[in-house]
Amino acid sequence: MPQRTLLFVVFDGVQSLDVTGPLEVFAGAEAHTPGTYRIRTASLDGAPVRTSSGLTLVPDEALTGALTGAADPHTLLVPGGEGTHAPDPRLVDWLRAHGPRAERLVSVCTGAFLLAAAGLLDGRRATTHWAYCEQLAHDRPAVRVEPEPIYVRDGRIATSAGVTSGIDLALALVEEDLDRDVALCLARHLVVFLRRPGNQAQFSVQLAAQTALREPLRDVQRWITEHPDTDLSVEALAARAALSPRHFARAFRDETGVTPGRYVDRVRLEHARRLLEDTPDGVEEISRASGYGTPEAMRRAFLKAFGTAPAEYRRRFRPAAVD
């Protein structure tokens, strides 16, 4: 197996975990299977950089010399952070020139903005931190921004969402380069899941939806979250809010940004997902507890949301679990 060179780009204002999270994954893979990866870090001029948290990183080399006398890196990884908001034009120019030459191009969090600024995401699917997806779509209309997945693969380019999702993407790449057993070993060592599916939502229902302004509607939101297995029809929820079904549906959508039905669907899916990850309960029991009623109904919901059945989803998190 040929050794793959990984080049991590660093700059002032970089998010430290965007760098160190994936780096620890690849370094762990190299320790597990020596000769797999050659990992390098580089800043524009080779000088130390100060991260957004104040930590100083000392790179191995300068970007201008990183490729001198050597083959292009197999994987070029671009992290995010405050330094992506007004990037050094020289960094964008370097990425524009060298990004297309890497066999695999990866961004973490707002590193997608640097790739987009260099024109490397035009016509491609991509994601970034949920708080910046709308801005990326606005600033770079040629990019097909997907706000929900924790990472997106589009050919040779992979983009991940906020911060820790870079670890998920790195584990997926290690699994691709080596095998699942190595990636699982690394995930256990780092005490993280192997592995969240790339199309898993970036954030919980309660973070994704706005909190209603009026107390009766906020009470309904809490009731839905705490009782996913009850009758959550518009009529039943409207009765709890002491509103007519029509008025309730309109007010709920206006104040939360989603319809009651969509909110209920997301809560039930998240509840079922967490039970699969965190408990030994069987699929049939979880389907009832989450309000689906039958395993088949829950299976359809998981296939639509994650592209995988509940039993397979669980195996990715709890390899020893048996349904």
TrEMBL record:
Matches recorded under SUPFAM superfamilies: Class I glutamine amidotransferase-like, Homeodomain-like
MF annotations from Gene Ontology: DNA-binding transcription factor activity; sequence-specific DNA binding
Keyword Transcription regulation applies: yes
Record key words, sorted: Transcription, Transcription regulation
Cross-referenced Pfam families: DJ-1_PfpI, HTH_18
Start and end residues of each HTH araC/xylS-type domain: 218-316
InterPro entries per the UniProt record, alphabetical: Class_I_gatase-like (IPR029062), DJ-1/PfpI (IPR002818), Homeodomain-like_sf (IPR009057), HTH_AraC (IPR018060), INH-QAR (IPR052158)
Positions in coiled-coil regions: none
Full protein name: Transcriptional regulator GlxA family with amidase domain
Annotated organism of origin: Streptomyces murinus
